[in-house]
Amino acid sequence: MDFRYPNNDEMKKYKLLIILCFMLLACNTDDTDTLSASEIMANRSLMLQNASELGVQVSIDNFRIAIMNLKISTESLVQETNETNLLSAREQWKKSTNQFKKLEFYNFLKIADEKTIQFIHFWPLDEQRFQEILVSEDEINATLLNQQPGNVKGLTAIEYILFQENAINILKENNRIRNYLVSSVNLIVTDINETQKFWTSSIERFNDTSLSDVTVGQNQLANTLIKNLQITRKARLALALNLNAEDSPDPTKLEAWLSNSSISLLKSNFAEWKATFYNDYPNTDEKYGFNDLLNDENQEDLLADIESKISQCDKIINDFSVLSVEISNNPNKVQTLYDAFNELYILIINDMASALNIIILVDECDCD
């Protein structure tokens, strides 16, 4: 067949055909973009619902079970004070407090009324006020303790009673300290039951908010990540390291130092932090976390930096056994742990918040 150039009529047809092809391609591209946006919004709603149902709700349930077991153990100890019952109560305290660290992580989401969650474990113990209550003429019960500041009740006071030297003899000889122990546990039981009721009435609102405006819920979760890193830096590490003072490190300012549980509690809290960041909770069939959000925004390099720092924090934490011993004998090692958490904090509050347009709702504190 001989080659020939198309005539004018044929050229018009070809041009029209090309224009139609481009229009079809443009329409297809718009549909794809719309579908992708819809999928992303659905995934973000999934992230928030997983956090409320598999994070908050499960943490409340698990802590309620643990604190009821502690109640049984402490009542047995008071009724029959011996070494076996003391060891059982101590073990249940550790289990309860580890479960609480997972629940405490979500406190910024306002899962309970006012300071209920905060006062379940508020440290360090005010020993002077604790002793004043013991020698007072007031009847020691949950009502009296509920009127006291957080640092003389809750899990901190229970730890002091169970893990102090000569705990068995003290419990045998002092009826008021037995009442203090039982009343402290009963107050926590009341607090967690109230928290359960509060959250049950709030979860529907939280999920509705997540579905109608995922940005609000996304902001809340991101600020929860930030708030917990603040607490880890300032309260769990810097306070005992005495970073802003000339004094030597003080292990008695550590969370749960008397029971040698500081590292265990830090691990529990950080485990919930990672579960929320990755939206990776036990029994999670579908997940969508902040790592996915960063990928959606083409922030792969930032995500790599964050994940590298998470791994570093994990590695350092797992290299500790008893934090109170390390902070006395090797404070530079604890300083390394503080620095790692501080660097992760900076990445989250500055870089991730900027990349995802997060509105900072927590009080910002200095980055040392």
Mean pLDDT: 86
Output the structural class. Answer: mainly alpha
Structure annotation, total helices: 14
Query: Which segments are poorly predicted (pLDDT under 50) over 5 or more consecutive residues?
Result: 1-6, 10-35
What's the helix-strand series? HHHHHHHHHHHHHH
Major sheet summary line: none
Q: Strand portion, in percent?
A: under 5%
- Which descriptor suits the 3D outline? globular
Terminal CA distance reads: 81 Å
* Range of helix content: over 70%
The tally of strands reads 0
Radius of gyration, in Å, reads 27 Å
Structure overview:
The protein has helices spanning 8-79, 83-104, 116-120, 127-135, 142-146, 154-163, 167-173, 175-212, 214-241, 262-278, 290-296, 300-317, 323-329, 331-355. By secondary structure, the chain is an all-alpha fold. Helix 2 runs antiparallel to helix 6, helix 8 (175-212) packs antiparallel against helix 9 (214-241) and helix 13 packs across helix 14 (331-355). It is globular. The termini are far apart.
